[in-house]
Amino acid sequence: MNIASVREVVSAEEWQLRVDLAACYRLVALYGWSDLVFTHISARIPGPEHHFLINPYGLMFDEITASSLVKVDQACNKLIASPFPVNPAGFTIHSCIHQVRDDAGCVLHTHSRAGVAVSAQKAGILPISQQSTFVLASLAYHEYEGVALRDDEKPRLQAALGRKNFLMLRNHGLLTIGRTVPDAFLSMYTFENTCRIQIDAQAGGELVYVNPKILEGMAQVMKTVTAGQGANIAWPALLRKLDKLDPSYKD
């Protein structure tokens, strides 16, 4: 695809955000969490205007580039001309979270097989893995109300989420919130692996549960694990991985 670069018409800060978000889409595809064109990752552009970047509807995640991302307002109106459509219905969940969470720099939503499978289990996430301990420290659930198209669902979703950073959408999928794109991606990596491990473990014998006391103070544990750098401890390596495979995400 020949997509005109927008690098010269946006701020340096927005361009860097575009590169990171495009990389995130490519990584979601690479790790097998995408659902054709039917989920979204949104990022808020810094500033008072409440502007966001979202995927051009109809492109596979491994096709998305920094310039093809669509800039929209809170109502999903395009702010920069783009040959691609956007999906207002797909932005419903994202917009309502960005609206009430000033720390939501990035919202990442998936329909992965393992994520949907666990979301359909009554007990939800079980404390049976090290990965699960990080998720359970900041996990919320939202009951399924059908395809997220109605505005009246937004207050209930916002209330269910509260200040948590992991959200399990019952019978639907997974969602993570991060201050940055790397933060949201690392959280989803942990969330997804938690679900995969759970499905695998349930196929075997009797489960061993983590001592509830271990779940306390996980925020500090995560800081230690990431050497105080959060997701930035892994993000440069992930970008190097993408650069080796296909650096076109930066176009």
Automatic annotation (TrEMBL):
It comes from the Bacteria. Pfam families: Aldolase_II. Residues 19-199 form the Class II aldolase/adducin N-terminal domain. SMART domains: Aldolase_II (SM01007). Belongs to the aldolase class II family. NCBIfam families: PRK07044.1. This is Class II aldolase/adducin family protein. It comes from Ramlibacter pallidus.
